[in-house]
């Protein structure tokens, strides 16, 4: 009886989350109909703008979320814990370089990287190696390199600085996080993960699902788990993009220090996909310094509003706060250093 009640509770949570997700999307899809509603209800234009930005963020992110959850599901089904341990160097610091190189191979943006890294850590990947992959993959992958090239083809300094800085900082950030946390578990394990899912498996028929069905099961489960945090992050980012007075930030971005800080704040709040952020950054070229634009292009894929919400959902709060602090300081200091040395 207890097992059945746990299953019903888990199912109820999943169903309620799914219904809220569908209801929220239906509301936003049909918000235009309220503009000239016959009942006298009307939505201000500013909220229609929030709706437009929200949907653009969600539609831009969903394909990558789907990619992330399917890769995560494939890792769950096909990758064994001993395989990860076998291919990683035993020395903690020696494992940082292969992780950064691995990030340069896979076309994964910051929307998809959180579920993948979470699953890899659950499979036995050391925390600091996961951190390197978390911050490196959204920047170093080939699609981002190509988009940055086309956006800044008249000044390839931005491309070289973005890729080189991301590679070096990923290793530095991973090393710092290793010094702080070693390999202590920093994931949040839900009751359903520890108990509920096992209960479901215990009462299921003994006939095992084939691997394709298992992959689809894990992918759909992970998608709805990640989706609610994506929607929350996208909505908050849409609010910031609509109501944030950019002229004030541009006014204080008049020197190397303040312009770097302002562009990092832009990168965090706008929550752009790393595959497209270079074209937005190029539009700031006449207003902000080259160094601050590089800060925008490096900091945003490592840390933005929507993936911060995901991180808080799946990692312990202390780890996420330290991660935010380390990423922010290292990017800010490194970009200022490049500017002081007149490299950019």
UniProtKB/TrEMBL annotation:
One of its GO terms (cellular component) is plasma membrane. Keywords: Cell membrane, Membrane, Transmembrane, Transmembrane helix. It is a multi-pass membrane protein. It holds the Pfam family ArsP_1. The chain crosses the membrane at residues 15-34, 46-79, 91-117, 129-152, 158-181, 223-244, 279-299, 319-341. Its main location: membrane. InterPro entries: DUF318, UPF0718. It is found in: Cell membrane. Signal peptide: none annotated. It comes from the Bacteria. Belongs to the UPF0718 family. This is Permease.
């Amino acid at each position: 009886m207890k097992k059945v009640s746990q299953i019903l509770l888990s199912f109820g949570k999943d169903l309620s989350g799914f219904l809220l997700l569908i209801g929220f999307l239906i509301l936003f899809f049909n918000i235009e109909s309220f503009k000239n509603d016959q009942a006298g209800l009307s939505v201000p234009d500013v909220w229609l703008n929030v709706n437009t930005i929200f949907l653009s963020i969600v539609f831009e992110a969903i394909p990558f979320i789907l990619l992330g959850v399917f890769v995560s599901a494939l890792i769950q089904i096909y990758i064994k814990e001993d395989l990860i341990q076998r291919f990683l160097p035993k020395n903690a610091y020696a494992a940082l370089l292969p992780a950064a190189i691995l990030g340069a191979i896979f076309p994964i943006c910051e929307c998809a990287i959180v579920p993948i890294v979470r699953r890899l850590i659950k499979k036995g990947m050391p925390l600091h190696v996961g951190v390197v992959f978390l911050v490196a993959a959204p920047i170093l992958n080939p699609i981002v390199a190509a988009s940055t090239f086309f956006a800044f083809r008249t000044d390839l300094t931005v491309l070289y600085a973005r890729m080189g800085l991301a590679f070096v900082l990923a290793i530095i950030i991973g090393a710092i996080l290793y010094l702080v946390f070693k390999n202590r578990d920093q994931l949040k394990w839900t009751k359903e993960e520890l108990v509920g899912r096992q209960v479901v498996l215990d009462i299921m028929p003994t006939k095992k699902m084939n691997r394709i069905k298992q992959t689809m099961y894990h992918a759909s489960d992970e998608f709805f788990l990640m989706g609610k945090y994506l929607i929350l992050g996208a909505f908050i980012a849409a609010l910031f993009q609509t109501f944030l007075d950019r002229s004030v930030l541009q006014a204080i971005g008049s020197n190397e220090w303040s312009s770097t800080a302002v562009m990092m704040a832009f990168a965090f709040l706008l929550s752009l996909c790393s595959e497209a952020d270079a074209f937005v950054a190029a539009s700031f070229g006449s207003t902000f310094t080259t160094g601050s634009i590089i800060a925008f292009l490096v900091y945003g894929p490592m840390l933005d509003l929507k993936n911060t919400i995901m991180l808080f959902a799946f990692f312990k709060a202390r780890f996420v706060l330290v991660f935010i602090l380390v990423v922010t300081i290292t990017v800010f200091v490194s970009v200022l250093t490049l500017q002081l040395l007149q490299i950019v």
